[in-house]
Amino acid sequence: MHPSWRSRYKRTPPGYKQVWRPINRSSPPVPVDFTVPTMDSLNLYVDGASWSDDEPEVYRKGTGVFIPNLEIIETDNNQTENPVSIDVLPDDIHERILSCLPLSAIFKASSVCKRWYQIIHSKKFTLKDANFLSEKTWYFMFTSSVEPVGYLYDSGLRKWYNFELPFMVHHTWNVASSCGLVCFMDDETSKAIYICNPMTREYEILNIPPSPGFPVYSALAFSVDQSKSKYTISVVRSMQASDDFLLWNVSIQVYDSQETTWLHPVMGAMQGWRPGDVSVICDNVLYILVFCTRAHEVQNFHGMITYNLDNINPSIGILKDESVILAPCALTCGRLMNVQRKLVLVGGIGRPNRPGVIKGIGIWVLNGREWTEITRMPHKFVQGFGELDDVFASSGGGDLIYIQSYGGTALLIYDMNTRQWFWSQKCSMHKKFPLEIFSGFCFEPRLQFM
Question: How big is the CA angle at 436 (ends 430 and 438), to the nearest 5 degrees?
Answer without folding.
Answer: 70
